[in-house]
Amino acid sequence: MLKIGDFSKLSRISIRMLRHYDEIGLLKPEVVxxxxxxxxxxxxxxxxxxxIQVLKSMGFGLAVIGEILEKYDDPRAIEEFLLVKRRExxxxxxxxxxxxxxxxxxxxxxxxxxxxxNYEVTLKTLPQRYVASVRQVIPAYDAEGMLxxxxxxxxxxxxxxxxxxxxxxxxxxxxxxxxGDVDVEIQACVEGSYNDTEHVRFKTVAPVQMASATxxxxxxxxxxxxxxxxxxxxxxxxxFDGPSFCIYHVSPYEAKSPDDLVTEVCYPVKKx
Length: 272
What we know:
It is a single chain. This protein is an alpha+beta fold. It folds into three domains: 2-72, Multidrug-efflux Transporter Regulator, Chain: A, Domain 2 (Orthogonal Bundle), CATH 1.10.1660; 81-116; 121-271, Alpha-Beta Barrel (Multidrug-efflux Transporter 1 Regulator Bmrr, Chain A), CATH 3.20.80.10. 38% of the residues lie in helices and 27% in strands. The chain contains seven helices and 13 strands. The strands form two sheets. Strands 4, 5, 6, 7, 8, 9, 10, 11, 12 and 13 form a ten-stranded antiparallel β-sheet that branches. It has a three-stranded antiparallel β-sheet with strand order 1-3-2, with helices on one face. A hairpin with a 6-residue loop joins β2 and β3. InterPro entries: AraC_E-bd, DNA-bd_dom_put_sf, GyrI-like, MerR-type_HTH_dom, MerR_fam, Reg_factor_effector_dom_sf. It comes from Hungatella hathewayi. This is MerR family transcriptional regulator. Pfam families: GyrI-like, MerR.
């Protein structure tokens, strides 16, 4: 039998954690002295201690580790636990990369001119146009690509002719920002006459007066651009008059990197 201190050294688990594992039933000592309360472990428990440490290093919580250990003799069950954790880690990696990109861009802007609000806002009118449109509720804003894919696939046989200029834009119809299930419409300007498909509608869109700001680079600038547009609208006696939209002058499909993107953020407005 091993005293808790000796087992701690051999397993590389602190005495404090061994006591905690005992309390939650994850790794109980083989013997507890009734008089002294001393815990004694067996050498045969070292492989179990190693499994716990390995699973912790993978990022599993203690509750899940307990579930895994209960099914340790079932390879398929263990594999499912590992696959779920892998997907979680991949998502964490994706989010970490996005956050690093935001940090890098912010540092770059600060070094450039120390002013994150330097976006030129203009008042203009987007003219009447004939468009191919797809409007759907999609899981998230970054799933917009599925709408463009839908448009391209369903109209491929009609050989659409792009209008000049060809505005490609996305309209955000929800009243406010949403974390999921967002109502988005995409439009591509075309010339000619075409037949509607299952999801694509062809229609004429009326002119719209808008306050807009164009920026280059990744989409994580959008909040600062919005602030600039909102400030301009307030200072010039206008008010919002319809759902916002973005015009993609250089879209993700055309850009080699996020730095190559060119996006115009547009808010329909009217005089107060």
